[in-house]
Specification:
The complex is a heterodimer of chains A (271) and B (348). Chain A has helices spanning 2-17, 23-26, 29-44, 59-68, 72-90, 93-96, 111-137, 139-148, 153-182, 192-219, 237-255, 258-270, and strands spanning 100-104, 107-110. Chain A has 271 residues and is mainly alpha-helical. Chain A has two domains: 1-151 and 233-261, no CATH class; 153-219, no CATH class. In chain A, helix 4 (59-68) packs parallel to helix 7. Chain A is globular and about 75 Å long. Chain B is mainly α and 348 residues long. Chain B is built from 13 helices and two strands. Chain B has a two-stranded antiparallel ribbon. In chain B, strand 1 (58-59) and strand 2 (66-67) form a beta hairpin. In chain B, helix 1 (10-34) crosses helix 4 (81-98), helix 7 packs across helix 8 (207-215) and helix 9 runs parallel beside helix 12 (294-303). The longest helix of chain B is centred in the C-terminal third of the chain and has 45 residues, at 217-261. The radius of gyration of chain B is 25 Å and the shape is globular. The two termini of chain B are 46 Å apart. The chains are: A mainly alpha (271), B mainly alpha (348). At the A-B interface, helix 1, helix 3, helix 4, helix 5 and strand 1 of A face helix 1, helix 2, strand 1, helix 4 and helix 7 of B.
């Protein structure tokens, strides 16, 4: 029960982070969405044995977290929750891919271990930018940005509706589970029959709620459009610099293995 | 069953993104034409309901483990194909952004695997066909379970194909397929039973809710006809892009190997006939995607560079990696120091 409450407190906290006012929060959301897309594409396009070349990409999440004062521990925790899902598949790599691809001193390293580590780094990088994007922008504003970038309006309305009622309905769900647990004397889990009727009731109440909402919408003259608050879209020079600068860096880092060059430089100067 | 960005290649992710975006566009247009306005809030609230239902666990009898509702098929039964697809897609997008559950690039794959199959395949072609004109409770339950199993089997097949075609995971096609399909057979039965229980409850408590949906024949029928067209287009697109990926990626790989080893790379890839053959081969054998990195693995062995050189290379990689990490953290700390006074200013 506490775990469930915790999950949704987490959810709300991420939403609250988006209400801050830093220079990064104020950027036009389109710039952030497109930069994130460029980041993900660059990271994902590395071949499966890449490790070192992906490391410089940590710079982007690190700078964004630092410059906007996002809580590092919170973001790290959210990433750590996700990584096992990627690892479930990645852990098979060392099993199936036993070709030796490099030696470190005496040790021969299987390709599988390298690609497994590569998957972990990819998961960390891609998960962190997704969470940072929401924390810096906020869901309704991201929807508005995507709509401006060509997402169908009906889908934008659907996303905003869903988003508004997640909080209401999960509260209701958590209350229902708590009530159920308080009455079941510490017995864990619901039986199938209980589950059917509990979720069924919840569904019927949800259905009724939708009808009330529809009437309320009609009463207020809903015209099929949500009016989101947030940075009003102006794609100015700041956005251009942010997007252009980062994207250029991502592409350069994709073409040149910076750590290898850097390390070579150091190793060269040592000898 | 959510795929992560870490396991998807840009070509596969991009193709599935395009497919899912096209489906979203199609469903949005459908909704605009045929939707009765009451469905707009209903879709939103039912999407939120699926979130809630997913946190309610039940005990699976005789196993001690617990399961929860997935929701795709339930939404299809309650809303019909187009509206259900949009709702599922919106739920997955919120999950991708807020929980980083399934990545941003993998979102297209996830929407297709978890949305297309229940909404456009299992519901219209299995559930509707099985329940017939005047459904009773038992036929509804049976149809729900079968449809859930089928949609999960197809969904996990999608996951396997996309993962193998991406080539980030080293899992061989056959083993992965057997593993996923058998796991998802069990999950499908659980999902089917859970959905059936809820449907049975609604059927007893408020049957008109289910009748309303099945009575709206035109909206249900139209997607059925254009479904085949969409399916074909999606298949063609995916197949096309996959083969392009399969013949194109080795070039990219060889190019990167050439950079690393400073050799000229493999000449055969420039040959157009070879490329065409490769395309055909990749179309006939999905395995080709998996075996591609062989070239890279084989190459260092062939050149047989002296051991010291290799150690030197990995050493410089290690040093460089460590320096890069340190620089990232340093920049982070520096930015934080500069950001703090600004934060103060903003809060005053």
């Amino acid at each position: 029960m506490l775990a469930i409450d915790g999950t949704f407190l987490d959810f709300k906290q991420l939403d609250l982070l988006a209400t801050q006012h830093t220079a990064l929060h104020r950027l036009d959301p389109r710039a952030k969405v497109l930069t994130t897309a460029c980041f993900v594409l660059c990271v994902v396009s590395f071949d499966r044995y890449t490790i070192s070349a992906m490391l410089p990409y940590l710079l982007y999440p690190a700078v964004l977290i630092a410059a906007s004062g996002l809580p590092f521990g919170y973001i790290l925790r959210k990433i750590l929750i996700v990584i096992p899902f990627a690892l479930v598949i990645g852990i098979f790599n060392p099993v199936f891919d036993r070709q030796v691809i490099m030696h470190v001193g005496e040790f021969a390293i299987w390709g599988g271990w390298v690609s497994c580590a590569s998957i972990l780094i990819r998961a960390t990088l891609t998960a962190s930018v997704a969470i940072i994007l929401v924390a810096l922008t906020g869901f309704p504003v991201i929807c508005a940005a995507l709509e401006k970038l060509g997402m169908p309006k009906a889908f934008a309305v659907q996303l905003l509706f869903l988003y508004r009622y997640i909080f209401v309905l999960t509260d209701e769900g958590v209350r229902t589970i708590r009530a159920c647990q308080l009455r079941s004397f510490g017995r864990r889990g619901l039986s199938l029959r209980q589950f059917g009727s509990l979720v069924g009731h919840l569904l019927l109440r949800t259905w009724d709620r939708a009808e009330r909402i529809h009437m309320a919408m009609l009463a207020r003259g809903f015209s099929g459009e949500f009016h989101t608050t947030g940075p009003q879209g102006r794609f100015g020079s700041k956005e251009l610099i942010f997007m252009g600068g980062w994207s250029a860096l991502f592409i350069v880092l994709r073409l040149y293995n910076a750590p290898q060059l850097l390390g070579g430089l150091f190793a060269g100067s040592l000898s | 069953m959510h795929m992560a960005d870490a396991l998807v290649s840009p070509a596969v992710g991009g193709a599935m993104w395009a497919t899912s975006a096209a489906l979203i566009g199609y469903c949005s247009a459908q909704g605009h034409k045929h939707l009765d306005e009451r469905k707009v809030p209903l879709m939103g609230v039912l999407g939120a309901f699926v979130f809630t239902a997913q946190i309610i666990n039940f005990t699976i009898p005789a196993t001690g483990s617990s399961g929860h509702l997935g929701g795709g098929l339930l939404l299809a039964i309650l809303l019909g194909p187009s509206a259900a697809f949009l709702t599922i897609a919106s739920v997955l997008m919120v999950q991708a952004l807020f929980f980083a559950d399934g990545g941003l690039l993998a979102l297209g794959c996830n929407i297709f695997n978890l949305g297309f199959f229940p909404a456009f395949f299992a519901y219209p072609l299995i559930y509707r066909k099985l329940i017939g004109r005047n459904p009773g409770q038992s036929s509804m339950v049976m149809a729900t379970i079968v449809a859930a199993v089928v949609s999960l089997q197809l969904g996990s097949l999608g996951v396997v194909l996309q993962t193998v075609a991406s080539g980030v995971s080293a899992l061989p096609f056959k083993e992965f397929l057997l593993l996923m399909q058998s796991i998802h057979l069990a999950i499908g039965v659980v999902e089917g039973v859970a959905t059936a229980l809820v449907i049975a409850f609604i059927y007893r408590a408020r049957p008109e809710t289910l009748e309303n949906v099945s009575r709206v024949k035109p909206t249900a029928k139209r997607p059925l006809r254009s479904l085949l067209a969409t399916l074909l287009a999606a298949a063609a697109l995916t197949g096309g892009v996959l083969s392009w990926f399969a013949s194109d990626a080795p070039d990219g790989l060889e190019w990167s190997i050439a950079r690393i080893t400073e050799s000229a790379g493999f000449p055969h890839a420039q040959d157009p006939e070879h490329k065409a053959l490769e395309t055909i081969q990749s179309k006939t054998a999905l395995h080709s995607g998996v075996t591609m990195p062989e070239g890279k693995r084989g190459h260092p062995e062939e050149t047989a560079s002296p051991v010291e050189e290799r150690i030197g290379k990995s050493l410089s990689g290690l040093i460089g990696g460590a320096i890069t990490l340190a620089v990232c953290f340093l920049v982070g700390i520096l930015c934080r120091k500069r950001a703090e006074p600004k934060g103060f200013g903003a809060s005053h």
